[in-house]
Design goal:
By secondary structure, this protein is mostly helical. It has 8 helices and no strands.
C-alpha cells in the first residue's frame, strides 16, 4: 500500500478519487434538495468501496450521507437502515450527528425508547448545539427524560 492508499484508508487512490467525485455530485444534488439524485450518487460511490465495507472510513461518511438524505426526504425506514449500517464503520460510535439522525429516524418510526437513547448520545456528544438547526420536537422529547438538559 502506498502513501496515498494509506491516507485513503487502504482504498486504491483512483477508486478513492472516483468515490469523492461521486460524493461531491451527490452533495450538489442534496443542496438543491434533489434527494433521489443525491442518494443515487452516494450509492454509486458506496458500491466502489471494497468488502468488507465496515473496515473503511469512507463507508462511515457515505452511509451517513445516505441516511441523512433519506431522513431529509422523510424516508425514515431507509434512513434508519443506512445509519444502523454506518454504526459498524470506523469512528461512527460516538459521532453526535449519526446518533442524532438515528434518534430522529427512530422517533419518526415511533420507536421511542431507542430514539431516546440515540438522542441522549447525540446530546452527550454534541451538546444542545447539535439540535439547533433541527425541529425542536426532538430536543423537547429528550428534555422530558434527561436530567440536567437545559
Amino acid at each position: 500500500m502506498d502513501g496515498d492508499e494509506a491516507a485513503n484508508g487502504g482504498i486504491d487512490n483512483d477508486i478513492y478519487e472516483h468515490i469523492r467525485e461521486l460524493s461531491e455530485i451527490g452533495n450538489s444534488y442534496l443542496e438543491k434538495k434533489e434527494y433521489s439524485k443525491a442518494i443515487e450518487q452516494y450509492h454509486k460511490a458506496f458500491d466502489l468501496i471494497p468488502e468488507p465495507f465496515e473496515n473503511y472510513k469512507a463507508s462511515t461518511w457515505l452511509l451517513t450521507a445516505i441516511g441523512d438524505t433519506y431522513f431529509l426526504a422523510r424516508d425514515y425506514i431507509n434512513a434508519l437502515r443506512a445509519l444502523e449500517e454506518a454504526m459498524y464503520c470506523p469512528k461512527a460510535i460516538g459521532n453526535a450527528f449519526i446518533h442524532l439522525r438515528l434518534g430522529q429516524a427512530l422517533f419518526e418510526l415511533n420507536n421511542l425508547d431507542k430514539a431516546r437513547d440515540e438522542l441522549a448520545r447525540a446530546y452527550l456528544g454534541g451538546g444542545k448545539e447539535i439540535f439547533e438547526d433541527e425541529n425542536p420536537k426532538y430536543y423537547e422529547y429528550l428534555k422530558a427524560f434527561m436530567r440536567n438538559v437545559e
